Amino acid sequence: MNYNRRKFIYLSALGTAGLLFPTTLLGETIFKNNDVLPSVSNAALQNALLKAKEANALRLAKSLAQAEAKYREAISLMPTDIRFYDGLRKVLILQKDKVQTMVELYQSGYAVNPNNAAFAARLADVYCQLEMGNKAVARAIKEKTGLSSLADEAQKLYAKAISLNTKNKIYPVSQVKLGKLKQNEAFVKDARKNAAMHGFKKGNRESYLVSFKNRTPEQFNKYLLTSTTKKRRVLSAPEELLRQKEILRNRRDLYLKKLNKYQELKDASNILLTAQELYSKFPNDKNTLQVIKKVYKANQKYQEITTIAKERYASNPTIWSGIGVMKAIQQQYKKTSTGNLNEAISIGNSLLSKVEDNVMYKIQVLSMFSRNYTAMQQYTSAFQKLEEVKVLLMTNGISQPTTVNQYFTDYGLTLAKSGDGTKAEKVLKIGLGRITDEAEELVKLFRQKNTEKPTQRRDMEIALAKVYLQTNPAKATEQLQHILSLYPNEKFALKKL
After folding, report:
1. pTM for this structure?
2. Contact at 8 Å (CB) between 323 and 365?
3. What is the pLDDT of residues 21-75, one digit of tens each?
4. In terms of CB atoms within 10 Å, which of 201, 308, 327, 427 comes out highest?
5. Which CATH number do you get for residue 77?
6. Could you tell me if residue 413 is inside a domain?
7. Residue 302 and residue 295: Cα distance in Å, rounded?
């Protein structure tokens, strides 16, 4: 984790989310290693535990005043047990005006238990948070205690906690974190202007990535098998939802790291298996969808891509998922001659009834119609749909280069496939701005475009090369060389030259 000032404040109790330094404060209050734990046979402890249980139920029910009273009763019965202080903290943390009360709670706990490592460390945690999170309360605490620096006092408290409990593994880590924050002036500089903290954060990130880069697929399998989802305490509904999201994100990241490792090893069979497993675990994740489609494409499994698109459309019949099915079927037909283009046309007809009020969606659907009709060699129908697209573009003043350029590309390629290479060349040259002196609608459409980037013309450049490959090999070579001058790594041009 990167300990920059903004994240520190965000995770802070003083920012209403919790405390960063201890691992125990956001989960169940537990004791680590040899912290002093009172005997559970003690009658006072049993009574205090019952009151804490009642208080926790009240907290979850948002009865904060009653919950606070119950926790204070528990503390009065067992003032040496830090669990009840931590329980009260969970109530106080939900009330913005109780920040100073929470700090004073741990101060009083440490005053009663000066030789208890847990109390010393917890007060150090709170002081660190206060120094970075709530400057107004920090000033008030400094004035009240006479301390010049809460961070310096926290360092002393961590040192004392370590001396009182040498076997605890958390306290030294917290002390090191505090040292790094002080070294990078995190307590005195805003994170956005703190170059030292930016460097520290970048170093942490690089170290993290390097550590994962050196893992083997077997190690990733072990992590996935041994990672636990056991929760430490009863959570509210929003807390449980957040926890489940974190669990899923962490497991997804492990699968992605494992997949990357197989890709480094160029292990095609395991790349495919891992991608399939990843998608089966996280079918609704957009990144996962792109991963499985890319892997299937590399393995020429276009039928599987179509199946995924159909499943997503069946479960969520939106306009974009329908367009996704049409694209998948067209791609399958183009690569394997096995797609059911009539099914794509049928889906397109159902989509048109949903997009009457949305011009951009309608253009997308009509464009897909034209491509499918072109693939079926039904050129009259393809030109009819392209004419509808042109009318929509011009009457609505559509100026987005990507949308307009897609029309020129589709129109040019359809003309070429229908056998009219001369007109196809002219259309694409107009789209590329190489013909601008003719008074026809396509020239007006070209001028309608906003300023475009060179990358937005890539498909038209390639389409023109495809036309020349059919009609004029010499011009085709010239055009392919031109494409490489603009896009040096363009695979189509490299393959054809």
Report:
1. 0.60
2. yes
3. 333 333 344 334 444 444 444 788 899 999 999 999 999 898 999 999 999 999 9
4. 427
5. 1.25.40.10
6. no
7. 10
